[in-house]
Amino acid sequence: MPIIEAAPGVPLAYETFGDRSDPAVLLVMGFGAQMISWHEDFCRALAERGRHVIRYDNRDCGLSVKFDDHPVDVGRFIGAVSSGDIPAALAMVPYTLRDMAADGLGLLTALGIERAHVVGSSMGGMIAQTMAVEDPARVLTLTSMMSSTGEPEFGRACAEAQAVLFAAKPADREGCIAAAEREMVWASRKCGSAALLRELAAESYDRCHHPAGVGRQIGAMVLGGSRADALRRLRVPTLVIHGLDDTLIDPSGGRRTAELVPGAELLLIPDMGHDRPRELWPVIIDALAAHTGSPRPTVP
User: Fold this and answer.
1) Where do the structural domains in the chain lie, given as residue ranges?
2) Cα separation, 290 vs 46, whole angstroms
């Protein structure tokens, strides 16, 4: 697995698919999820549509840099935020969504890519939005998938999904694999698969089990603040994709994102939760291919 410095002291693990001469598409993953959550088959299918696809591990996840010298007690952090003690919460967190957005842009720079289509999922959508806001000249198009704007009244998780998100996971491999089934609470009702959740949990555990990074990523996400004003001023072509079955980030988050960004296209997908079931890949990949440019003609 190649690793490259996106900035001094910030090595990131990444992988590419397709022809480097094709338009670059940077895939940004969400909270606590390694880049393998962008399934290899999904990446190859998108590459076959004439795209140079790049997936990577965010900081504090997978094989990328860890910030273990800054431990975050999630309980204390949530308590500080809930009580309104934002200065105390800020003091616990070593980096922000802006830093994570800079990582993605730095990765592109290190790879010699000046501009790219940026696709972010969940927290990755928040990072992708921040990339477009902070450096729009480098973002050819933005796709914000199953994400929100940072405004607390939009995209709220249902109580059960929120409880699963913040629940402590078992430390052992078998326990982690079994606990992955809890995520069915936000999966597609029709296409969700507990077996696939267990399979991804096993692969992720074996690749890099690093629960300590979760607290720091939560901190960056929760303290990201509202991007509403910045999104209103954004002039990057934007596609918003959201599943109507999503209980982790309610579809109101996607609707609000599309409402704020001038000219944004909104694609609401029935039978899709906070996941990307294989059955819906054709819909998602067709949308991404159309949004990022003319698809390559099919070879007979």
Assistant:
1) 3-157+212-291
2) 11
Tokens encoding 185: 């609470």
Bridge partners for 238 per DSSP:
142
Q: In the numeric block, which tokens belong to residue 159? A: 């109580």
Q: 0.85 cut: is pTM over it?
A: yes
CB-facing half-sphere around the CA of 290: CA atoms within 13 A? 10
Per-residue pLDDT, 188: 96
Q: Give the DSSP per-residue string, 126-181.
A: HHHHHHHHH-GGGEEEEEEES---S-TTSSPPPHHHHHHHHSPPPSSHHHHHHHGG
Q: Is residue 108 within a helix (H) or strand (E), and if so which, with residue range?
A: helix 97-110
CB 169 within 8 A of CB 202: no
What confidence score (pLDDT) does residue 220 get? 93
Q: What is the pLDDT of residue 294?
A: 52
Torsional class of 5: left (φ above 0), alpha (ψ -120 to 50), beta (otherwise): beta
Superfamily, domain 3-157+212-291: Alpha/Beta hydrolase fold, catalytic domain (3.40.50.1820)
Reported as a single tens digit per residue, the pLDDT across 216-249 is 998 999 888 999 999 999 999 999 999 999 999 9
Q: What is the mean pLDDT of residues 186-201?
A: 96
d(C-alpha 62, C-alpha 50), whole Å: 27
CA max distance for the chain: 62
* Rounded Cα–Cα distance for residues 70 and 78 (Å): 16
- Torsion sign (Cα): 9, 113, 225, 208: negative
